Amino acid sequence: MSATSNGGKPAAPASNPRPDGPTPVRRGPGGGGPFGGMQGPAEKALNFGPSARRLIGRLAPERGMIILVVLLGVASVVLSVLGPKILGQATNIIVDGSISKQLPAGVTKAQVIEGLKAKGDTKTADLLSGLDLHPGHGIDFSALQLVLGIVLLLYVFASVFSWLQAYLLNGVTQRTVFRLREDVEAKIHRLPLTYFDKTPRGELLSRVTNDIDNISQSLQQTMSQLIVNLLTVIGVLVMMFVISPLLAVIALVAVPLTLGVTVAIGKRSQKQFVAQWKHTGALNAQIEEGYTGHSLVKVFGRHQEVEQAFAAKNEEMFKASFGAQFISGLIMPSMMFVGNLVYVAIAVVGGVMVAAGSISIGDVQAFIQYSRQFTQPLAQLGSMANLLQSGVASSERVFELLDAEEQTPDADPAPSPTAHTGRLEFEHVSFSYDPEKPLITDLSLVAQPGQTVAVVGPTGAGKTTLVNLIMRFYELDGGKITLDGIDISQMTRADLRSRTGMVLQDTWLFGGTIRDNIAYGRTDATDDEIHAAAEAAYVDRFVHSLPEGYNTVLEDEGGNISAGEKQLITIARAFLARPSVLILDEATSSVDTRTELLVQRAMSALRKDRTSFVIAHRLSTIRDADLILVMENGAIVEQGTHDQLLAKKGAYARLYEAQFAAPTDDEANAAPPQPVLVGAPPSTGEIVREALAEEDGATDA
Amino acid sequence: MLGRLLVRFLRPYWLLLLGVVVFQLGQSIASLYLPTLNADIINKGVLRGDTSYIINTGIVMLIITLGQIVCAVIAVYFGARLAMSFGRDLRGAIFHQVGLFSEREVSKFGAPSLITRTTNDVQQVQMLVLMTCTLLVSAPILAIGGVIFALQQDVPLSGILLVAIPVLLIGIGLIISRMVPQFRKMQTRIDTINRVLREQLTGIRVVRAFVREPVEVERFADANGAVTETALRAGRLFALMFPFVLLVMNVSSIAVLWFGAGRVDSGDLQVGSLVAFLSYLIQILMAVMMATFMAVLLPRAAVSGDRIGEVLNTDSSVVAPTNPVTTFTGSGQVELRGATFSYPGADQPVLHDVSFTAKPGTTTAIIGSTGAGKTTLINLLPRLFDVTGGAALIDGADVREVDPELLWARIGLIPQRPYLFSGTVASNLRYGKPDATDDELWRALEIAQAKDFVEKMPEKLDAPIAQGGTNVSGGQRQRLAIARALVKRPEIYVFDDSFSALDTATDARLRAALDREVGGATRIVVAQRVSTILDADQIIVLDDGKIVGIGTHDQLLLSSPEYAEIVQSQLSIEEAA
Lengths: 701, 577
Description:
Strand order of the largest sheet of chain A: 6-7-8-3-9-10
Helix content of chain A: 55-70%
Strand content of chain B: 5-15%
CATH architecture of the largest domain in chain B: 3-Layer(aba) Sandwich
Number of helices of chain B: 20
Number of helices of chain A: 24
CATH superfamily of the largest domain in chain B: P-loop containing nucleotide triphosphate hydrolases
Distance between the termini of chain A: 42 Å
CATH topology of the largest domain in chain B: Rossmann fold
Strand content of chain A: 5-15%
CATH class of the largest domain in chain A: Mainly Alpha
Helix content of chain B: 55-70%
CATH superfamily of the largest domain in chain A: ABC transporter type 1, transmembrane domain
Largest sheet of chain A: 6 strands, mixed
Shape of chain B: elongated
Largest sheet of chain B: 6 strands, mixed
Number of strands of chain A: 10
CATH architecture of the largest domain in chain A: Up-down Bundle
Largest interface: A-B, 197 and 179 residues
Oligomer: heterodimer
Shape of chain A: elongated
Radius of gyration of chain B: 35 Å
Structural class of chain B: alpha/beta
Structural class of chain A: alpha/beta
Distance between the termini of chain B: 59 Å
C-alpha cells in the first residue's frame, strides 16, 4: 500500500476562486508499508497559529524579495485601481461632448441651465449642472486622447508590475520549497533508524512529496492573491469613497454579506472535503487490495463480495464528493448574486444621483466597475481560507518530521583506532528496541582479527539486531562494543562504517548503472578496482553477456537481472569497500541453484582474512566458523565451535538436529540442507561449470 | 478515446446534462441581460431624469438576478451530480473490467498502473466533466450572447472584438502551449524525486553502512534542483497569464471608448450603449479566457482518457463459458493434454505441448529453472490463464467449459507470493469459506504448522494482519496462506513454491501432516528444493516450457540428465562452500 495522498490543488488556473474539486489522488511510488498514508494531508490544522507563523518564518531568507514583491503589488494595484476612475473621465468627456453638441453654439453653460430652469425643467438643469459643457462643441477629442493615453500607460505599467510581482513571487515560493525539501532530506540522514522502523515508508514519502507540493501550491496562490486582493479591496474602497461616499457605503454592505456567505459555505464544504478525502482513502485501499490480491480473489470465489464492497465504498465516495462539490460550487453563484445586488443598488441610487446632478455618469460607470473589482477579491479572500488551512496542515506534518528526535551527534574530535585488524569485542552489552521487552542482556564476546563468527538461531532470535549494533544503527542501552580497542560509540559513524562492510539479505541497488552500483562501495575507486571487485564477486562474467556491459542501467524493479545477480553486485560492492570487519547475511531469497553457488563462493572469498559476522544458514559456513553464537530470544545461549557445541548436546545440538539433520534419512536428503532454489538462465550455465571447475578459494580477489 | 468515454458514460445522465445546459443558459442570459437593463437605466432613466423608471428597472434587475442565482444553484447541483456520477460509474466499470481480467492482462498493465488508472486517471477526466459543466457550458453562451448583445448596441464598434478575441486566444494559446510540456516534464521530475527518496528510505541501512550520505544528499539535490527549475519555468509562464489578459481587456476598453467617442460624436451611438458595450466586451473576453483555461485540463484528461480506454477495451483472455458444466463426476483428477501457452506476438511459447495426469490421492511435483513455465502451468488449472493450445481438464471436463465458481471451489491455490488481506488471522483463513467454525480454522492451522505461532499471538485468531501480511514473517505468511487453502477443503491443492521460506524440518512436518490430513486430494507442488519433492508420486521436470522428464525421484536420477544436474548442483553448493 502506498501513499495516496492528495497533492493539493491542480496546477491549472491559479486564480480559480472556487475550492477545487477532487484533487488528483497521486500515488506514491509503488510499494510502501501497509499503513502507507492513505489519507490526504490532514484537512484541519491542529495548531494553526504556531504552524502558520513557522511557515512564514521559512520565508525569512527571501525577506528583501518579499518586500519588493509587496511594493510591486502595491504599485500595480494602485495603477489598476486608478484606471477605471480615469477611464470614467473619458466617459465624461464623451458625455459632455455629446450633450454640448445638442446645445446651440455661443451660449454658456450657465445660460443653458438658466434657460432650463426658466422652462421649469429643473431635473435636466440639475443633471447638466454637474457636466462640463461647451455648448455647440462636440467631443473634445484631444482631451479624450490625452486621458486615454494616460490610462493606456497606466494599464501597461500595471500589467508589467503585476507580471514582475508574479514572476518574483514564483521564485520566492519555489526557492522556499526547494529549501524545505533540502532540509527534509538532510534530516532523513540524521534520524535514528528507530524512526524508520516505526514510520511507514509511504507516510514519509507522502510528506516530502504530497505535503510539500501542497505547501508550494498554497504558498504560491495565497501569497500572491493575499497581497493583491487585500490591496485591491483597500484601494477600491478608497476610490469609491473618493467618488461618492454614499455609493461607497452601499457597496460596503457587500463586505459582511460576502464574508458571511463565504464563511458559511466554507465551513460546510471543509467538512465535506474531509469526508471526501477519508472516503477516497478507503476506496483506494479497497482498489489496491482488490488488484494486488487479484488471483486470490478469483480462486477463492470472492469476486462478488469484493465487487459489492467496492461498490459500497464507491457510493460513499460519490456522496461525499458530490456534497463537497455542490456546496463549494455554491460560492461562485452566491458571490455573483451579491455582486449583482450591489450592481442594481448602485445603478438605481447612482441613476437617481446622476439625475439629481450630484454625480457624473462617468463616475457612476467607474463606480460600477469598482464594485465588480470589489466583490471578486472578497470572495477570493474567503475561499483562500480553505487553501491556507490545507497548506498549514501540510506544513505541520513536515515540521513534525523536521522536529523528530535525531541521533546523537558524532563526538568531535573523535578517537579513531590506529590498527586495522578488526578485533571486535562486546562487553556486557544490553539492548532493546522496546524498553518493555529487553532483547539483548549482558552479552559479551570477542571476535579476534580474521575470525569468522557464525550467528545461528531461529527467526526473531535477534541475529539481525547484533549486526545492527556493530554498525551502530542503534545505540546500546548498556555496556560497550569496541573495535580495535576503541569504543564504537566514541568513533564517528563515518569512521566506524568505513571500517565495516555489509552484505544484506535484501539486495539494495539504486536506479543507475551496474558500475555506479558497485562503485557505491567506495566513490574514489578506479575503473580497474571496480573490475577487480566485479571479477572477485563473479559479476564480471554475467555483465559481459549484457549488451551494455557495466553501463547497463538497472531498472526500478531490477527486471533486467536476476535476484542472484543482484546479490553478486552487492558483494562486489563490499569487496570494493575493503572493510576490516564484514557482516554477511546468508539468507537467500529466490535465487536459482547455479547463481546461489556463485553467491556462496563469492561470500566465502570475501570473508577471507577479515573478521566476519555471518548470519549463517549454510551448514558448511557454520561448521567452518571459528566461533558459533547460538541465539535464542535475544540472548546468546551458547558459544563455541561446531564440535564443542555438538558435544554439549544443548541448544545448538537441538537446532542442528531440527534444521540440518533430515527428518527421514535418505541419501539425497542429507545433501541440500538449506533452501536451495533451482534454475538459471541457460546462459549462465557455462559460467557455473567453469566456476565449479575452479578450486576452492581460487577466486579470491 | 476521451470522446467515446464521455459519450458512453454520460449517456445515462442525458437528462442531467440537458438540465445543466438549460439552467446554465438561463443564468447566462440573465447575466447578459443585466448590462442591457443598466444601459436602459442610463439612457432612459438617468439622462431623462426619470426616477421612477430607474426604480422600476431596478426592480426588474433584482428579479432577474434572483432568477439567475436559482438557475446557477440548480446548474451547480446538476453539474456536480453529473460529474460525480460519471466518475463513480467509470471507476465501477474499470474495477469490474479488471475483475474479469486474467493474470495475463493484470500483469500486462501491472497492478500499480491499474490502480492509478482506476483512481487518478478517473479523477482527471471527472475534473474535466465538472469544470465543463460549471464553466465551459456557460462560456460559449456568455461569449455568443455577449457578441449578440454587443452587436445590438453597435455593430461597427463590435469590430474591436475581431481584434481583441484573436489576440487573447493566440496569446493564451502560446502561453499554455509552452506550459503543458513544462507540466509534463515536472511530473516526470517529481517521479524522480520520489524514486531517489524511496531508494534512500528502502536502502537506508546500506546508505549508512557505506557512509554514502553526502552522495545521497547530492543526488537528492540534483533531483530537487531539476524539479525547482521546471516549476520556476512553468511558474514564470503562468505569471504572464493574468497581466496579459488584463492588458488585453484594458486596452480593448480604451479602444472601445476611443472609437465609441467618434460614433457618439457623430450621433450614431448613445452614451448608455457605449457603457453597456464596455460591460459586454469584458464579459466576452472573460468567457474566452475561461474557455482557454480548459485547454490546460484537456490534454491531461485526454491522456487519462486513453489510459482508461486501454483498460476498458482490453478483453479478458479468459471468458466464462456460455453453457457451463455445472457438475463434476470425479474426485479431482487433473489432466493436461498437449497444453500450450504463448503470449500474443511472442516467438517462443511459455508452455509447449505439456501433457500429464495427476490422480486424486497423489502428489505431482514440478521442478525446473526460473522461467521454465512452472507457475504458468499451474495457473492454467484455475484459469488464471487459458491455454492457447491443447486443454486443461479436471475430471475429464475442459476447465474452459466449467462454471468458474464451481471450478474455483474445487481448487485450493497457494500462490508463490503468499498475499494476505488486511484484517485478522480469522478473516484471512475464512477467505475461501466464510462460514468456517473456529475449530476448522485451528485444525487448518495445525496442519499448516501455524498453530504454534498463532497461539502465541495475544489475540490469537483475531490477531490483526496488515495489508499484504507484512506484519508476520515470510514463513508465517506462507503457512497462513496454506491454512487458508486448507480451510476451503478443496479436492485439488496447488502449491506454487509454497515451502520456500520454511526450514527443512518444518517443511517435512508440514508435508507429513498434509499426507495424513488431505491424503485423498490431488496435490500439485511446484518446488525448488529437491528434498521437498523426494516423496512425490511423480516429478515433472520442466525446461523451457517443455517436459524433459517425468517419473519418480529414483527413476529421474537415472533417466533425466536435467534432473540429475539439479540434484547435483544442490549437492555441490554444499561442497563448494
